[in-house]
């Protein structure tokens, strides 16, 4: 089974930090921060969307990885799922310790934030990605 580098980054992201579950929004923002810091080639293209930076290809890759049994989803009562890597997915990780350390730091940071505080951070640091937000940006600044 051949995976591209972006898909392996998702698997490695889910594998670090004690394999803690992540929501699609947390995965999206983690990949966005990784892209901003590392400037990897052939990576996801992010556009301003409802909750800030979004790459629709991330959702496609999550579905593909789930269909291949490399990640599993755990639905919540709120209508979305949290994702976790499977034992099969662990066979396809990025083997670069430096990248994995960066992903671990990003994931730990992302998981330490509430939904609102995560958006507040992203919108303050990358305001150009907040232009299509469904949140009142000025109200967020006061929280």
Quick structural overview:
The protein is mainly α and 143 residues long. It has helices spanning 5-19, 24-38, 56-67, 97-111, 115-125, 137-142, and strands at residues 47-49, 52-54, 71-75, 81-85.
Features:
143 residues, mainly alpha, Arc Repressor Mutant, subunit A, two-stranded antiparallel ribbon, 4 strands, globular
Question: Could you estimate the helical fraction of the residues in percent?
Answer: 40-55%
Helix vs. strand class: mainly alpha
Shape by Cα distribution: globular
**SS elements, strand count:** 4
* Strands side by side in the biggest sheet: 1-2
**Mind describing the biggest β-sheet?**
2 strands, antiparallel
* CATH architecture annotation: Orthogonal Bundle
Distance between the terminal alpha carbons, to the nearest Å? 46 Å
| Highest-level CATH class | Mainly Alpha
CATH topology tier name: Arc Repressor Mutant, subunit A
As a percent range, the share of strand residues is 5-15%
Strand/helix succession: HHEEHEEHHH
Mean pLDDT: 93
Rg from alpha-carbon coordinates: 15 Å
Low-confidence stretches: none
Number of helices: 6
How many structural domains does the protein architecture include? 1
